[in-house]
Design goal:
- The complex is a heterodimer of chains A (about 250) and B (about 220).
- Chain A is mainly alpha-helical and about 250 residues long.
- Chain A has one domain: MetI-like fold.
- Helix content of chain A is about 75%, strand content about 0%.
- Chain A is built from 11 helices and no strands.
- In chain A, α2 packs parallel to α5, α2 runs antiparallel to α7 and α8 runs antiparallel to α9.
- With about 220 residues, chain B is mainly α.
- Chain B has one domain: MetI-like (MetI-like fold).
- Chain B contains 11 helices and no strands.
- The C terminus of chain B is likely disordered.
- Classes of the chains: A mainly alpha (about 250), B mainly alpha (about 220).
- At the A-B interface, α1, α3, α4, α7 and α8 of A face α3, α4, α8, α9 and α10 of B.
- Chain B: Belongs to the binding-protein-dependent transport system permease family.
- Chain B: This is ABC transporter permease.
- Chain B: It is found in: Cell membrane; Membrane.
Chain lengths: ~250, ~220
């Protein structure tokens, strides 16, 4: 436990709250970096995911790509891009955007797919245009799953942004690597604790958001669906047809 | 290419290191998650505690966990045990949910029928519920295997040798081929493990071959690294 009190002392040490290595500065770097990466990834993945979800086209490709991307080790991608573009913040941005896209994309299209086809047929029957269906039916109903995708992506970016300090002078990860180099365990542990706290706080915030974005009138039904879609994670995914028709997939 | 050809021995050694680090977590997490997942499904109180705990654990980034573990369990900072234990924890965090949902996916009618023809709770679990939730468990284990193989590489930055060492070494010495070789080998290893699991699933659950992937798969949220 002595190690932990050392780490807490390190966090509370006023010397670590000023200068270029100040904790607030590193923390905000980490947050800004995460936010920007998520924005870029969302700008690409959300429209694409909506398109796939609405039309049902390109789903196979999306599943394969996002499944394959998960097998790629982040450290490998990070170091490779860093060699290409040079040491600096560009490499982490590129690598992390690539990694953040699959979960967001999957959240966007599975959100649409989880909607009962009859609901969408009904919307079409009362005269909604395709754009209206997307805007007023599919997006609100698919939102919890999209937020779920954003949640996974955020966790991943927070984690990998720590690793990104290996190739760039960036974020809370600096403390881990600086401490490793100077064998300062209090710094390493203190930095680690800060990253873990940050991840847990964001996880909590997302859990709250996810609860609030369920539209009124849609209750428990969506919850089971929500846990059911795995964001294109395995090839044993249910075929899109049964999902789209809303029929039970299991042959009973 | 020349780098790869002249360093085949090194790559092979790192592959073996990688297998040694990734196999124990994959096996261990299944063994540990099975009773925990059962417990999570069985009682309301334990469900809340176990699933919340698993969710929080899963949110902890891997690199900081590698640093925190030595302080908790007293291992050396560069001990491979840190990586094995950390990855086992992640596997458990993911599989607990999968096991609980897998057991949930067994039809209540089937469960009652099993009891009605005389199965005890113990034998019903092993002979009815576990086999029937097999496809869901398999899907979960495939995710665990792939992400474990990928996460082992992170250990390289704290000095635990694996295929990830090819990334750190290649980066420091500016050898692209080394990093690419590491990437290919890691993905290849992940695919190999994945294939082995699929094969094991076919052998252990011959009935799923005819039905195909009929059952809705388990909830597996994925956020690696």
């Amino acid at each position: 436990m002595n190690l932990f009190s050392d780490a807490v002392n390190w966090i509370l040490d006023p010397a670590n709250w000023v200068g270029i290595n100040a904790i607030p500065l590193r923390l905000s770097q980490h947050l800004v970096f995460t936010l920007v990466t998520l924005l870029i990834a969302s700008a690409i993945a959300i429209p694409l995911g909506f398109l796939i979800g609405h039309t049902g086209r390109g789903r196979g490709l999306a599943v394969t790509t996002s499944g394959g991307l998960r097998a790629i080790p982040t450290l490998g991608l990070l170091t490779l891009v860093a060699l290409w573009v040079g040491i600096g913040v560009v490499a982490p941005y590129v690598a992390l955007t690539v990694l953040a896209i699959p979960p967001i994309l999957a959240g966007a299209y599975t959100g649409f797919e989880a909607i009962d086809r009859r609901t969408i047929d009904a919307a079409r029957a009362v005269g909604m245009s395709e754009l209206q269906i997307v805007r007023k039916v599919e997006i609100p109903l698919g939102l919890p799953l999209l937020i779920g995708g954003l949640r996974s992506a955020t966790l991943q970016v927070i984690a990998t942004a720590t690793l990104a300090a290996y190739v760039a002078d960036l974020g809370l990860g600096r403390y881990l690597f600086a401490g490793l180099k100077t064998r300062d365990y209090a710094e390493m542990l203190g930095g680690s604790i800060l990253v873990i706290l940050l991840a847990l706080v964001l996880e909590g915030i997302f859990a709250l958001i996810q609860r609030f974005v369920v539209p009124r009138g849609v209750s428990g039904r969506l919850k089971t669906r929500q846990s059911g879609s795995t964001a294109g994670s395995t090839s044993t995914e249910p075929d899109s047809h049964s999902l789209r028709t809303g029929r039970p997939t299991a042959a009973r | 290419m020349t780098w790869v050809l002249s360093n085949l021995g090194l790559i092979w050694a790192r592959i073996l290191d990688h297998v040694v680090l990734s196999l124990p977590p994959i096996v261990l997490c299944f063994v540990i998650a099975l009773p925990l997942g059962w417990l999570a499904r069985r009682y309301r109180v334990s469900r809340g505690i176990i699933l919340t705990g698993a969710g929080l654990l899963y949110a902890v980034p891997s690199l900081p966990l590698f640093f925190v573990l030595p302080a908790v369990i007293g291992t050396g900072l560069r001990s491979p045990l840190n990586v094995i234990i950390a990855l086992t924890l992640y596997g458990v965090a993911l599989m607990v949910r999968v096991v609980s949902d897998g057991l949930d996916s067994v039809d209540a009618d089937v469960r009652q029928s099993a009891s009605a023809v005389g199965y005890s709770a113990w034998s019903r679990f092993w002979q009815v519920e576990l086999p029937l939730s097999g496809p869901v468990l398999l899907a979960g284990m495939r995710v665990v295997a792939v992400s474990t193989v990928s996460l082992v590489t992170v250990g390289a930055v704290i000095g635990v040798q694996s295929l990830g060492s090819l990334f750190t070494d290649g980066f420091q010495r500016g050898i692209q081929a080394e990093i690419i070789a590491g990437l290919v080998a890691t993905v290849g290893l992940a695919l190999l493990f994945d294939g082995a699991l699929v094969l094991a699933g076919r052998l252990l659950m011959p009935w799923t071959r005819k039905a195909g992937p009929a059952r809705r798969t388990a909830p597996i949220e994925v956020s690696a690294a």
